[in-house]
Amino acid sequence: MTSPAAVVESSWWNxxxxxxxxxxxxxxxxxxxxxxxxxxxxxxLFVLAAGTDWVDGYWARRYGQVTRLGRxxxxxxxxxxxxxxxxxxxxxxxxxxxxxxxVIITARELLVTALRGEIEGRGGDFxxxxxxxxxxxxxxxxxxxxxxxxxxxxxxxxxxWRWAVTAGVxxxxxxxxxxxxxxxxxxxxxxxxxxx
Length: 196
Fold this sequence. Notes:
Four Helix Bundle (Hemerythrin (Met), subunit A); single chain; mainly alpha; 7 helices
């Protein structure tokens, strides 16, 4: 007789995957609220969605519920959320997020996804690195700051807040570039190894 934990572990419809799918649904609602300029709602839902990213990973590791679907779905939903939000923010003039910020963030995610697909397709391990975790955290903080400013002040944010947001977005871009470089270096090292 299998234990309850083993049954849950073998099922794709476990708690971490449900949380991840919930974050995917929240992402779509966030995009809709940004389209409708409901910035308060977007800001609250974004904080909630960003928080679930930590919860599903912790739950999967803590209770042994890591699945193949989760390893694919979780990073996809993270990228969908963060790239989508920055693309929307770049289209909102009062957000003061330049288009190239969204381009750099999206390009890094596409590059790392392509490298992960190639390496894991060869049977290698291309797990998340700490630079990637910090990158996601700082991107979420930066996007949250922009959304918070839109919700509270709109285009009339005080100069001090605008400087803080600029610093936050700049830091997020720098860690995004650094993280991308870190993953490329790691990928090149793995790709040079002979295939088994």
